[in-house]
Design goal:
Layout: E1 9-12, H1 22-36, H2 43-47, H3 52-62, H4 71-88, H5 101-110, E2 114-117, H6 124-131, H7 154-162, E3 170-174, H8 177-186, E4 189-193, E5 204-206, H9 214-220
Parallel strand pairs: 1-2, 1-3, 3-4, 4-5
Helix pairs in contact: 1-4
Length: 222
């Protein structure tokens, strides 16, 4: 295992690590489902972690509407959902930062560690501005430059490159198994935040963000 003293940078996923936008996604999909006349209890859990078009297909199928729309019309519905979501996240603030993460970012900056963002969300800059953490993430991978999604390591490799570091010098933080796989494939040390049974491939596991600190990471790497 890489030594803690070798670590010079931290690469963050956004959703589920720094903040949690799942309730805003669920509400935006709920608004669209209501418009389509689809009653979908448990919609929030159903759409979590899947692509926009897959989520739309699921809602349409639930309502028996999967054959009622052309591909162009489906694209328009997905765009409408995103517009709903972008409108909702305008209400985000510092209260949406997950427990302990503001302190952890401040600790990293104070100790001189590099910090970069590895999020596929095109709305990440807006979210970071709303929750007041933009100054920590001046280096962020541009999703438009990515050829592959997680679990491909591309986004985490680029996150290290932005810091002028080798992957082995970086720790990646994720809350999803696909993200952990990407971090590991990049040759970085992975920190999984969430259910350790689901994130069993992570180098280090924390059940929630409040446990994440340099001291706890160093202890786990001994």
């Amino acid at each position: 295992m890489v030594k803690f003293t070798d670590i010079k940078g931290f690469i963050f996923d956004l959703d589920g690590v720094v903040t949690d936008t799942s309730r805003y996604h669920a509400k935006a999909w709920g608004q669209l489902a209501d418009k389509l006349g689809v009653d979908y209890p448990g919609l929030g859990d159903a759409v979590k972690g899947i692509s926009r078009m897959d989520a739309l297909e699921m809602i349409l199928k639930k309502g028996g509407l999967e054959n009622n729309y052309s591909e162009a019309e489906k694209e328009a519905l997905a765009a409408e959902k995103n517009a709903n979501y972008v409108n909702l996240i305008q209400n985000m603030s510092a209260k949406d930062i997950l427990p302990g993460m503001a302190d952890f970012l401040a600790e990293l900056k104070d100790k001189g560690y590099g910090i970069s963002l590895a999020s596929a969300s095109k709305n990440a800059p807006t979210i970071l501005e709303k929750i007041g953490l933009s100054d920590y993430f001046t280096k962020a991978v541009d999703p438009a430059t990515l050829k592959y999604g997680k679990p491909d390591p591309e986004i985490f490799i680029k996150g290290a490159q932005l810091l002028d570091l080798m992957p082995a010098q970086c720790i990646g933080l994720e809350d999803a198994a696909a993200g952990i796989a990407g971090i590991n494939a990049a040759g970085e040390t992975s920190v999984g935040i969430g259910d350790p049974e689901l994130l069993h491939d992570a180098t280090i596991n924390f059940t929630d963000t409040s446990q994440v600190s340099l001291a706890n990471i160093e202890k786990a790497m001994q």
